[in-house]
Amino acid sequence: GAVVSQHPSWVICKSGTSVKIECRSLDFQATTMFWYRQFPKQSLMLMATSNEGSKATYEQGVEKDKFLINHASLTLSTLTVTSAHPEDSSFYICSAKEGAAEAFFGQGTRLTVV
Amino acid sequence: QQQVKQSPQSLIVQKGGISIINCAYENTAFDYFPWYQQFPGKGPALLIAIRPDVSEKKEGRFTISFNKSAKQFSLHIMDSQPGDSATYFCAATIGGGYQKVTFGIGTKLQVIP
């Protein structure tokens, strides 16, 4: 299957700082990317959907000013957690798809805010 | 509001046994039902998927059974192996593709020797 790479795999940041997570499609053009958050022993919750070159569409309850999503190219989307707090600590996972094809998931990023 | 209900949340099966995970949904607009396998610290990977016009789909040791009238579907893992130990998520999408995947809560499967 196609490869979606997330970076970093894990990150620790201080409370109040911002952290950026990258999601790259390595062998296809990701016209649509999705960002999910997964708390321990819970399911994946969709945070937002982004189409290349357009503003992201956020799910209800997700603060767009706190979770900044940029999908400026067909191979890269970034999620920036601004002014991170301990409650933002979670496993963040992206997925990417080309057109109507299957979506592939990245390996996830473990964020710990201390 | 949990749109896709999954059970059990954890499951222990002997090696060689059959693992069964059940899911139910309410939204009749769902028209594609993928199952994902997730190992610790990794993202989910598509395992098998089914459309509601089919009652059963089999791929190797993995079988999905689908009951459209009951709005239920299940994953059967035959001859379960220790390497199958992972968390399994049922999911549902609208539009026949992978827009906005709605996941179940997940089932942590442990296959013991």
- The ordered H/E elements of chain A are EEEEEEEEEEE
- Radius of gyration over C-alpha positions of chain A, nearest whole angstrom: 13 Å
Q: What's the total count of β strands of chain B?
A: 11
Identify the biggest protein-protein contact and residues per side. A-B, 26 and 19 residues
Number of helices of chain B: 0
Terminal Cα span of chain A:
36 Å
* Percent helix range of chain A: under 10%
Number of E-state strands of chain A:
11
Structural class of chain A: mainly beta
The main pleated sheet of chain B reads as: 6 strands, mixed
Stretches with pLDDT under 50, minimum 5 residues of chain B: none
Description:
The complex is a heterodimer of chains A (114) and B (113). Chain A is an all-beta fold and 114 residues long. In chain A, strands 2, 4, 5, 6, 9, 10 and 11 form a seven-stranded mixed sheet that branches. In chain A, strands 1-3-8-7 form a four-stranded antiparallel sheet, with no helix packed on it. Chain A has strands spanning 4-7, 10-13, 19-25, 32-38, 44-51, 57-58, 67-73, 76-81, 90-97, 104-105, 109-113. Chain A is built from no helices and eleven strands. Chain A is globular. Helices cover 0% and strands 53% of the residues of chain A. Chain B is mostly beta strands and 113 residues long. Helix content of chain B is 0%, strand content 52%. Chain B has strands at residues 4-7, 10-14, 19-25, 33-38, 45-50, 56-59, 62-67, 72-77, 86-92, 102-103, 107-112. In chain B, the strands form two sheets. In chain B, strands 2, 4, 5, 9, 10 and 11 form a six-stranded mixed sheet that branches. Chain B is globular. Chain A binds chain B through residues 1, 4, 6, 9, 32, 34, 41-46, 49, 93, 95, 97, 100-108, 110, and chain B through 36, 41-46, 89, 97-106, 108.
